[in-house]
Amino acid sequence: MTSSKLSKADFNALSEFRYQMRRFERFSEDVVQAHGITPLQYLLLLHIKGYPERDWATVGELAERLQAKHHGVVALITRCEAMGLVERRHSAIDRRRVEVHLLRQGETILAQLAEQHRVELLSLAGVFTIPKIHHE
């Protein structure tokens, strides 16, 4: 079934966007694995460090950022803890809440990888743009 609302140029723009996004993802997978961690572990570290207004996040917040199930994120955190990248701490304010913090090794790996990702993103400037879809 062909949509009459989207033009060939629209499909081309969407295709190019997905292609450039996948190229970046592939770059990320390769560079992250070369540092001895998985892409999901990298994203966990990134979302902890990048959480708005603080340098830690809760399991629930990380599950939302990763768009993953709570129990899967708990398992991911456990693997990262075993590698010395993160640690869980009970909140001083609410002992029921568990905060996930980066450890020095996690900070070091994240800083190296984030710089490589930043350089790659800068190299895609102008190429990696959000497609404009024409509405008829």
Write a concise keyword list for the protein shown above:
136 residues; Arc Repressor Mutant, subunit A; three-stranded antiparallel sheet; 5 helices
Descriptive overview:
- It is a single chain.
- The chain is mainly alpha-helical.
- 58% of the residues lie in helices and 10% in strands.
- The protein has a 3-stranded antiparallel sheet with strand order 1-3-2.
- Helix 1 runs antiparallel to helix 5.
- The longest helix has 27 residues.
SSE order, as H and E?
HHEHHEEH
- Please give the largest β-sheet: 3 strands, antiparallel
Which structural category fits the helices and strands?
mainly alpha
Give the number of helices: 5
> What share of residues are in beta strands?
5-15%
Known CATH architecture of one domain: Orthogonal Bundle
Assigned CATH superfamily of one domain = Winged helix-like DNA-binding domain superfamily/Winged helix DNA-binding domain
Strand order in the sheet with the most strands: 1-3-2
Q: How many runs of DSSP E, i.e. beta strands? A: 3
- Overall 3D shape: elongated
Radius of gyration: 19 Å
CATH class of one domain: Mainly Alpha
Helix content: 55-70%
Which helices and strands, and how do they pair?
Layout: H1 8-34, H2 39-49, E1 56-58, H3 59-66, H4 70-82, E2 86-90, E3 98-102, H5 104-123
Antiparallel strand pairs: 1-3, 2-3
Concise synopsis of the structure shown:
With 136 residues, this protein is mostly helical. It contains five helices and three strands, in the order ααβααββα.
